[in-house]
Amino acid sequence: xxxxxxxxxxxxxxxxxxxxxxxxxxxxxxxxxxxxxxxxxxxxxxxxxxxxxxxxxxxxxxxxxxxxxxxxxxxxxxxxxxxxxxxxxxxxxxxxxxxxxxxxxxxxxxxxxxxxxxxxxxxxxxxxxxxxxxxxxxxxxxxxxxxxxxxxxxxxxxxxxxxxxxxxxxxxxxxxxxxxxxxxxxxxxxxxxxxxxxxxxxxxxxxxxxxxxxxxxxxxxxxxxxxxxxxxxxxxxxxxxxxxxxxxxxxxxxxxxxxxxxxxxxxxxxxxxxxxxxxxxxxxxxxxx
Length: 289
What we know:
CATH topology of the largest domain: Leucine-rich repeat, LRR (right-handed beta-alpha superhelix)
Number of helices: 10
Helix content: 25-40%
């Protein structure tokens, strides 16, 4: 059974949704409900979420272009945690910024075969990153997470990496073209020392001089298949080379990295050279070019 009360109706508000929600609690046949282009607010969406919390038939819910803000969107996502049937939740053109990704979260919860999450260009900032971090904290299926081209700064990066640091399956994390500074990048590096599976950390396009060195450090620590690494012309100085040196120093003997490329375009001084020399004493790198 499909019920379409969107677009051409356009006038359903909180009272109407409360009445509809009461009827939905006992419904056993509805599989699609279209409430797009109405006047549904945070209050009304709570009525709806409570009614659908244990629903066992609804597959598609369309709430496009209503007046739902982040509080209502978060309530909806939390209420639907135990729902086993809803797969498609449409929330575009609502007032809350969470509307850009909560529908994908619902789909991800239900489909355990999904291992790649792409949330690039979703206007995700620190609050949104914190919400997503709670979703991903105990996840054991995500192998690739793309959060590039968003508004994540140091706090958002911390939420994200704290949630994913113990992941046993994540291999690719893309945080490129956000607003993460040196402090946030340094936090990522320290926290991810606990992680043994992440081999690709994308950080380019952030306002930080550390992004190349920390990406390299993560790969050196965890990728046992690389045989060479090119760090030429990356504006790497003493502070940046310290990240690479620490990774080389602590790298397991099983790594295949034997060639590391660099040149005079980088700005490594005496201090950086000492970091590097100390690291190479205990590493398998044979060629420094």
